[in-house]
Design a protein that fits this description.
Largest interface: A-B, 33 and 34 residues
Oligomer: homotrimer
Strand order of the largest sheet of chain A: 2-1-3-4-5-6-7-8-9
Largest sheet of chain A: 9 strands, mixed
Order of helices and strands of chain A: HEHEHEHEHEHHEEEHHHHE
Strand content of chain A: 15-25%
Helix content of chain A: 40-55%
Chain lengths: ~270, ~270, ~270
């Protein structure tokens, strides 16, 4: 696997806009609207199909599937498993976003079960990645209490179950499986205002699912989503005066960012593992 | 039935603002917030009552009911039926929005059941209208893959079950029952940005429920909602730089649009059937 | 208990920003996103944990809990009780927001049950407060049909169950338990546009839960939340041209309001009881 660069990410953005991949999102009620608006703005499409009757079958026609553990109940938890298995059976890439895993035992065991079903990619904050790998547990609600860099060993451990893993933070740490062992990189940029608008992380997970549908390998898809978000957030911050206006500008920027913007502004660095 | 015009629609807007009809929405989790904000901005009111204990009784006190199939589960699916039957029993108009019908068998049979309970109006995209009429099935997730005009025969067929039916698209196609057979019209205008903000269609369906509470016949109510939305979207586009700012400007425009704006900007044309 | 003033409220804002209390919200699907964004903007944090497996345990680690009856179903209704009992057992303050109580029998009996579990504070509109106290029932959907001032006797009656109670309206009426009987005050300001954006009331209830985590007594926490919201809304109105832009400006203002703004603009008046 070649290391994803600003150029491969720019190509991925072109591919996203050309093919408008359809994401199936099984995501929490806090994020449902914003996740869809982020996908539409970025250039993808979304259907929130999370009932037990339709989750598995739809995973076969979707371009990518997001399973986000933010607000599970017994019904959606069952649908998560059905969608994950449906995705794997159909060869559809799927993303696990282990929101709140660590501090909450029920969803932590749900996440452990889902992990055995082999997500294509896992995206979380550092606390969640550490907890999901079984290397600790310090999640405070749904926010991270671990520095992203410290989640790298956990992310590498999770490559036993997933093709690519990321821990989001001020700098994002991403790892993937290379031909001779794990490959890593960081994505910088973004904006501190991303932490003041809810479900920006959830919608990044959804965008990973969209990019996995149009990229040749999982680490490239993961990198493209993180980079698209980071560049858009950086641009949006310039025209924002708080979290409300940032949220609006962020959606505008996700839509207006061009491949040239990506090539000029992406901050992708190799990470020694 | 006289053919609705810009003038009858302008009168309907006056009536909406004067009476602030209360809509009961049973709608998907993606749309719940935006649907309510659209209704409040336009001049109506909303209560999202979709549990099995309250759905039927509330339909008797609401001015109009929206049943939207976007994210059903077993509980809300049961509530849909209760609300529909409660609305019919009480003489409350109700709107069926068959989101995703066609490609998804479970909700397609749910929609077929609901159709037998005689919605006052049906609003969908062209694919959904075609599928609901049993004339084909080509829905891709929740987006349409059929041109709106091609849904007109399906819309006419659905008049066996509903008083008025619309297929949304770049141009909206609306049909209703006239004294000597079906009557049709188109509503133009709007903005391509409507497709880049999620649940603009769902919230149009909710606005139909609001207008049905204040208009003398169903096609007028349907036409008023489509026109209010089209004129507001056109105005909003002028001050938008992307989907985020469009969404904000759209809510502002729904609130600021006057009957004079409707008379000046409505693009309602008769449709030969 | 000393009467809360603009100065104690300004101190509470400092405390909120310094400690970032974590709210557990069990709130309706219409409000889920906005509630969280309001909390983040104001300076708190939120986790929407409303499933029966996690609701009770999380109430022990949260700084405050919001139980909002906007869109209950059988599962969340059970979680409400678990969270309330978990909060009381752990000494975590919790807020009851009785949305729609009065007109809807099922949730009214649910609210009556929750009231016996001793919420720290109750926040509702005037109709809901009157209905919850068993003094009448005139809720129209989820909007109030009673003037806030007329809810004061009901609010005082509810002090048998809660430490502090508020009825929101153009002017908010707040009561708490003093050493020699009930103490009352009013909070003015705000903006009529608050009624044109959905779930501003729900998010105020959530902010009460946040402030209860950082204030010495319940009436101070309740007053701080009402005042923060009123000052932010007043500032936001200046830069708004409708409900869409108000909603954005409101989030910005919740974040930018300083303790000095509170001291200069708070409109807190004592209320003779």
């Amino acid at each position: 696997m070649t290391h994803p660069t600003a150029h491969t990410v720019a190509d991925a953005l072109d591919a996203l806009r050309e093919t408008t991949p359809l994401v199936q999102s099984l995501t929490n009620v806090v994020s449902a609207n914003f996740v869809t608006n982020v996908l539409l703005a970025a250039g993808a499409s979304n259907a929130h199909i999370d009932n037990v009757h339709e989750a598995a079958a739809f995973a076969a026609v979707a371009g990518g599937v997001l399973v986000n553990l933010g607000t599970p109940d017994d019904g959606t938890a069952e649908a998560f498993v059905l969608a994950a298995d449906g995705a794997v059976a159909a060869g559809t890439p799927w993303v696990l976003d282990p929101v709140g895993v660590g501090g909450l035992p029920w969803r932590t065991s749900l996440a452990a079960d889902l992990l055995t079903r082999r997500p294509t990619a896992v995206r979380g904050n550092a606390s969640e990645i550490v907890a999901l790998a079984g290397l600790g547990s310090s999640t405070r609600g749904v926010d991270s209490s671990v520095d992203s860099k410290d989640a790298v060993p956990a992310a590498i451990a999770l490559l036993d179950h997933a093709d690519a893993v990321s821990a989001s933070g001020p700098i994002d740490y991403l790892v993937g499986r290379g031909s001779s062992g794990p490959v890593g990189l960081t994505v910088g940029g973004g904006s501190p205002l991303l932490t003041k608008v809810t479900t920006t992380g959830c919608s990044l997970g959804a965008l990973v699912a969209a990019y996995l549908a149009v990229t040749p390998d999982s680490l490239t898809g993961l990198t493209a989503a993180h980079t698209h978000v980071a560049v858009a957030a950086e641009l949006a911050e310039h025209t924002s005066s708080g979290p409300g206006s940032f949220s609006v500008a962020y959606l505008d920027a996700l839509a207006s960012v061009t491949p040239d913007d990506i090539r000029a502004r992406a901050r992708i660095e190799p990470l020694e593992l």
